[in-house]
Amino acid sequence: MRAWKLKRDWVTGWLLLLPAMVFLFAFTHIPAVNSLINSFYSTPRGKRAAKFIGLDNYERMIGDPVFWKVLGNNLWFAMGTIPASVGLALVMALWVNGRLPGRGFARMAFFTPTVLPLIAVANIWLFFYTPGFGLFDQLFGGLFGWSSTNWLGSPDTALNAVIVVTIWKEAGFFMIFYLAALQAMPVSLVEAARVEGANGWTIFWRITFPLLMPTTLFVSINAVINSFRLVDHIFILTDGGPDNASAVLLFYIYEIAFKFWETGYAATLTVALLVLLCLLAIGQFFLFDRKVHYK
Amino acid sequence: MSGIADVRVAGQEIRLEHVSKSYGTGLAADDVNLIVPAGSFTVLLGPSGCGKSTTLRMIAGLEETTDGRILIGDRDVTRVGVAQRNLSMVFQSYALFPHLSVAENITFGLKVRKVSRAERQRRLQTVASVLGLEALLERKPGQLSGGQQQRVALGRAIIAEKPVCLMDEPLSNLDAKLRHEMRVEIRALQQQLGFTMVYVTHDQVEAITMADQVVLLNGGRIEQVADPRTLYARPATMFAARFIGTPPMNLIPASALPVEALPRGTRSDDMIGVRPEALILDASGPVRGVVRSVEYLGSDTLVDLDVDGALVQARLPGQDMPAPGTLLAFGHGPDDLHVFDPATGRRREGGVVETGLPRQSN
């Protein structure tokens, strides 16, 4: 009787898990495993079925100069967006956490970019960057007398222009996490530090910042993932150009898979991206682990 | 050998002159005038929302005063920042830094003020030995019990050897036994170290047992400033009379008592205060009432009496258990009646003389 009841509990449990698991497997796990398998096969074309080619796709990837170019771009993109957006988020959170007239408005203003779709954001910035009459050219031209610059059209500035848009988009989102963490922090800690003679700078570096470490870890892992994941705006702003100057890994995967229909090679690139992301996430945990204090 | 003598400091006097604090429309402190003598243990006592914490935080500089002046050791600190007021503080929640070890917590202020490492270590050893924290120095606050956390907070307060120490309900998070121990310990520490202590509590037992001087606050105003004995024996207001003592002092309309029992000069609309423990069973006594209910407390018994319509509580010694409905008569000592003017709530002096019946000596 007891065993039967236990078994029934077991069945109920799995039935409850089933709907979520179906979707998780159908859209995440099976495609991921399929990608791994496909990366060892050639791309099927017409009547020619995919055939096992071992590591040929991986050899091609290692010999592909565009792959190294977009990987380098992606690292530059990550280095440009992660520290800047996280740092900016922290500064904004500290600012709107304090007593400040119009605090609600400031919070809303900082969070607005997060609510906007990335495509819409990219369209707004497209106008800012327009050579000649865009906001930046008008501003810099008026202030410093700079000549008109094609921010998105020149290989030197295209990627940086995309980075700026990403920071603008992401900082407000990360700010929310910092703001929540700041508000959960007991006021008496800061007061105690003030009584002990600490100034604002010391309080930040010795108390506030260390106590925000769990948030910083969370936010920076998200920032790393986003730096490999956010490509929507590249389609609008530069379409990866000029000469792949602003293409990142995921953008390149999209082009290979859905423009050139080389799904086998695209699967290989996808596996490379997944491995890279896993390594980064694990590395971050180890790097931060000692410095993070969890209550 | 390092010890208490190494951390002795000279306390400083604190003076509040016409200090007020308003939040929007409400007054948290209303024209507070107070002198905290140097080296004294002064307790700010009162019910929730009486302004005691606000007053303490104004002394600390964590709140700005709306009006008035605050002086610490003859220096006007009204507009001086927290860090420059040269005081230490223990918070109700202890406010220990959770990511720092006990040692780092205690020496935080010294490090901020760039005291040398050797000096920090020396003082840390002294304080740790005084508070019995030697074995815990490497732990994080999260690994400590409530009592140990309290000690760390005390350590952080005394290591700087500041002349003034402020405490905001430091014992309210401890259990009863520990609270008693810490009460004794904090009092001993203050007397040995010699700093001026301002201590906020809503617990009259803490106030009575620890204080040199109790400041009783109500609604942002000072009701009475006195040593614990005076506060108990001669409450200045009806509020003080009711707030101090368990159970609180009885307040009986003068009209409910026989005229000959009243102190000379009592008006018929005055309120007469008498403590439950001051009422002594006496068949010829002036306070007569019918027993309504009886509460057995072990060491004594609490009786609720109906004295001409007024509820009066009396504490009977021993195991007497009068049945409800019994008529009892009580006498009292010559100084045990307190006369209050109900219009102002203040004590009326010059009334209580030999009208009370002499205490029975059996």
Main attributes?
heterodimer, A: 295 residues, mainly alpha, MetI-like fold, 13 helices, globular, B: 362 residues, alpha+beta, 8 helices, 18 strands, disordered C terminus, transport (chain B), nucleotide-binding (chain B), ABC transporter ATP-binding protein (chain B), ABC_transpr_MalK-like (chain B)
Fold topology:
The complex is a heterodimer of chains A (295) and B (362).
Chain A: H1 2-38, H2 56-62, H3 65-97, H4 103-115, H5 118-129, H6 135-144, H7 158-184, H8 187-195, H9 200-211, H10 213-229, H11 232-237, H12 249-259, H13 263-289
Chain B: E1 14-23, E2 26-36, E3 41-45, H1 52-60, E4 67-72, E5 75-76, E6 87-90, H2 102-112, H3 117-131, H4 146-158, E7 164-168, H5 176-193, E8 196-201, H6 204-210, E9 213-218, E10 221-226, H7 228-233, H8 238-243, E11 250-253, E12 271-274, E13 280-281, E14 287-296, E15 300-307, E16 310-317, E17 327-331, E18 338-340
Parallel strand pairs in B: 3-8, 3-9, 6-7, 7-8
Antiparallel strand pairs in B: 1-2, 1-4, 4-5, 9-10, 11-12, 12-18, 13-17, 14-15, 14-17, 15-16
Helix pairs in contact in B: 2-3, 2-4
